[in-house]
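Hi there, hope your week has been kind to you so far. For a while now I've been wondering how a particular protein folds. I'm sending you its amino acid sequence along with the backbone structure tokens. Could you read through the record and tell me how the tokens relate to the sequence? Take your time with it, there's no hurry, and the full record follows here.
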Amino acid sequence: MTYLLASRLLRTEPKRSGVQFLRKKGEKMKMKKIWALAISLFILGRLDVAAAGGQCVDGFYYHSYPMIVKASIRDIHESRLNGPEGFAYFSAAGGEKRGNLPASLGGLSGWQTNVWASNFQGPRPVRNTRMQWEWTADGRVETSVRRYPAVYCQQTVDHPARFTLDAYTIKEDDDSGNPDDYVGKVQIDHRYCQSEVFGRGLRNGWTPERATPGINDVVSTSYQLYCSTHPTCTVEVTCPDGRILSCSIAGSCAMQNCSSGPDFVVCGGRRQKCEPLCPPRDPSCGTGGPSLPLQP
């Protein structure tokens, strides 16, 4: 049927003016058959895409990972009852002593890994289940030259032009049931990834060391950024009710990290299906509702 449709489209030739190209009748018919076959394959391909759901689209995401090399604070806000030293941490960790430091980053290594990733490292070592690097600043600037990946200061964007200057809250761990004290904020300018790496045509690389002023009692932070490009795939379908269901994940279409059907999408083995919207306050209607895209 598709082949006959394509053949009909080729029956009527446009009128030509000027020099006519002479061809043998057999050769002309052969060319028509080839074109009919090509058009029919194209139509079938489009029908297959429609039946299967959506198309998988390859793309990229861009990542900035800071390596802190120097930091200064003015006051750790440690009370006298708790001693002269204070344990500072990145509030984004969700707790005082969380996470693990990677053993390498962007081809570099050599920092101490038996330290909590949440530790905003000062110059004073305190032995515990893991080494804690603490501060004693009390109204005077104290500087630490500890070098380590800032796990909780990363930034990921879908285009290098979208990198931003971001601020990360630092708190001091108070003991004896007291609430943790706010110290200040570390500022990391991820825009250097665009100007120093991606803007120069590189897919991956380190920026030179930069220093950015801090906020409140965080005086400043010096760091390098490891900037990297990662492939990602995205797939979406239109649900029967008109809603768009989509997902994306690190990987590629060729590796089949993303796929779809008439009413579902799959990213990284996780399947999402178009579900009917439930009327408000209707307990008899399952758990349907709008589906949110997976993030890489």
The chain is about 15% helix and 35% strand. The longest helix spans residues 25-52. The first strand starts at residue 56 and ends at 75.
